[in-house]
Write a structure and sequence with these properties.
The chain is mainly alpha-helical. The chain has one domain: P1 Nuclease (Orthogonal Bundle). The strands form 2 sheets. A two-stranded parallel ribbon has the order 1-2. A two-stranded antiparallel ribbon has the order 3-4. Helix 2 crosses helix 5 and helix 10 crosses helix 12. The protein is globular. Bound molecules: zinc ion (ZN). The site of zinc ion has 6 residues, from helix 6 and helix 8.
């Protein structure tokens, strides 16, 4: 367990998504809602994952059911873990040098642009640019298709990605990029907005579910998120709509401080009520992501 915690803590400093906590919460909410059939299918797929022993069950409990649940939780974090894993390379960099293809992986790319789709938002009418594919917007529909019909090896590779990106696009700042006349290009989902105390707006939202990664904390947080945010009556299954919904929430709940970007030297000062609201919104978003992840897997893996 300590090794797992060390691993999670080290990478959470650099993660650019919901932190491990947020992804783990989404995963346990979903896992506990899978049909017995879908659950045994995801357990089976993850057991075939090349990183099952080394990462997905590292520090996991011995008892089989708890071990399987743990693996599903870690699978949701896996796409962030490979950002710091030297077996993989950053394919979005110019002059990127591919690393050696290892058994069980279709490729060794980090696919860092799959984690988000920055819907252009121009509150003061600044010129916008659309994010080209691949992005969360292009990859989610592909993954949904492939979970139904692709080779077994492809499904094994896809499942952690699907768990992860469903979580990511429910973080409002993974679905929007703000363009202002005063700034060059988009704010990259709040990564170029600086807020007190010494962090980016994006990081503030990533960590809004807390930064503790123990199974006990994650399970407790998930139970609270579910109790405070019951499942919707109609389950939206179109990922484009998830992204549109997240972008709307970003406009209404994230960019409430106006058309400022702050700077490292002079970060935007946010009121205490901002952080309290961010925690509330983030909790609702991880609950929604968990419900939708479960619904999609129940649908595709039955
Ligand atoms: Zn991510």
């Amino acid at each position: 367990m300590r090794r797992l915690l060390t691993l999670l803590c080290t990478f959470s400093l650099t993660a650019s998504a919901w932190d491990a906590t947020g992804h783990s919460v989404v995963a346990v909410i979903a896992y506990d809602r899978l049909t017995p059939r879908a659950r045994s299918r995801v357990d089976d797929l993850l057991r075939k994952h090349p990183d099952y022993e080394s990462i997905l069950t590292r520090g996991a409990p011995e008892e089989p059911a708890a071990r399987a649940r743990f693996a599903f939780m870690m699978a949701a974090v896996w796409p962030d873990l490979i950002k710091g894993d030297r077996r993989f390379y950053d394919d979005t960099r110019q002059n990127a040098v591919p690393t050696a293809l290892l058994p069980g992986f279709p490729d060794m790319r980090r696919h860092t642009n799959w984690h988000y789709y920055d819907t252009p938002y121009a509150p003061d009418g600044a010129p916008i640019q659309k994010q080209p594919p691949p992005s969360a917007l292009s990859e989610l529909p592909r993954l949904i298709r492939e979970l139904k019909r692709a080779s077994e090896a492809q499904k094994v590779y896809d499942l952690p990605w699907f768990e992860h990106i469903v979580g990511d696009v429910h973080q409002p700042l993974h679905s929007i990029g703000r363009f202002l006349k005063s700034a060059e290009g988009s704010d990259q989902g709040g990564n170029r907005v600086f807020v007190m105390p010494g962090q980016t707006l994006h990081a503030l939202w990533d960590s809004a579910c807390g930064r503790e990664n123990s199974v006990a904390y994650v399970t407790k947080f998930a139970a609270e998120a579910v109790a405070e945010n019951p499942p919707p009556r109609r389950m939206e299954k179109n990922p484009r709509k998830w992204i549109e919904e997240s972008a709307k929430i970003a406009i209404a709940q994230v960019y409430t401080f106006g058309n400022e970007t702050g700077s490292r030297e002079h970060p935007v000062r946010l009121p205490q009520s901002y952080m309290e609201n961010a925690r509330k919104v983030a909790k609702a978003r991880v609950a929604m992501a968990g419900y939708r992840l479960a619904a999609m897997l129940n649908d595709r893996l039955n």
